[in-house]
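Folded chain entry —
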Amino acid sequence: MAIIALVNIGMIVTGDIKQPLSKATTMVVQDGKIAKIGDADILEGFKVEKTIDVVGMTVTPGLIDSHVHPVIGDYTPRQKTQDYLDSAVHGGVTTFISAGEPHFPGRPKDPAGTKALAILVHKSFKNLRSSGLKVHGGAVILEKGLVEADFAEMAKEGVWLVGEVGLGSVKKPEDAAPMVKWAKKYGMKIAMHTGGTSIPGSSTVTADDVIAVQPTVVSHVNGGPTAISPLEVEKLINNTNLALEIVQCGNPKIAAFTVRKLAEKDALDRVIFGNDSPSGTGIIPLGILRTISFIASMSDVPAEKVIAMATGNTARVFGLETGLIAEGKEADLVIMDAPIGSIGSNALEALAAGDLPAVALVMVDGAIKVTKSRNTPPSERNYSVQ
């Protein structure tokens, strides 16, 4: 793989919410990873084969969507839409994390079928990289009858996600808690539906339910789409250290409330962002960008920290080697800028103003996958590749 240099970077958003900005102007990508970050002199010693002149634009980590409901391939029967994941890549999303595959046609609900589906979808998406996107699929939905040996078998086959607790027949905390313990024993990360019902078959889940089960992620704390109350959100903030997920299709008032309360506690590292699509509210390819823009413009949190909620925070919660611009991390990168007509002069100022930034380039594992977004407004500046 070619050694690529990114030069004349205006600003680097690191994805680290504690140190969200870097003044480095140059980056070297080698073998799909970030090899070096610094000033122009870091290029010495590298046989650079391709140079991207960023012309003062902003470089961020590839965005992570913490909440998708795929089936197999880039098609959703829920909304009868083809290439919806690829469309999100044009919105800067390079990694997608399944919260379960409830829309799979004829989804089996017996233990054997449930296991088989999780293993199949996990392995399918591991091989499907046509658009460069990374989909972590095969999130097993908890159904009655699953035993510890089933979790051991799934883990052996690579399954490491548990879909939203509450989507299957296991809904009560007393039924879910033992399975969650088994899942954690085998290294799995667990999401849990929170709030009101979303689709037929789902159930209302309270803060006490979540506290009893202790998942990894409190899914859509702002509702999917119906949210729990502010008092319930505060109970989760004050009585747990769990990651709290904000989704695009949820309640915006509770989303802003959650961020404000966590900011007061200096605990913004607990916030992650998801789309929760395909959902009944539709598919929004720019959903993660829209959520970043909403929070950055409607709160006092700087845009660079909000971007970290959609990158480094999520990577840490799920144990991924992406989401941060740091040496040794996977080179999933986005070049973005203020769009034409924005009052902002760069991507961060545009986001703070409530605008969507222009996505100029998307790189996954060091390979350029998007040369100009088909979904975002353009920038006045144009990078060059030599």
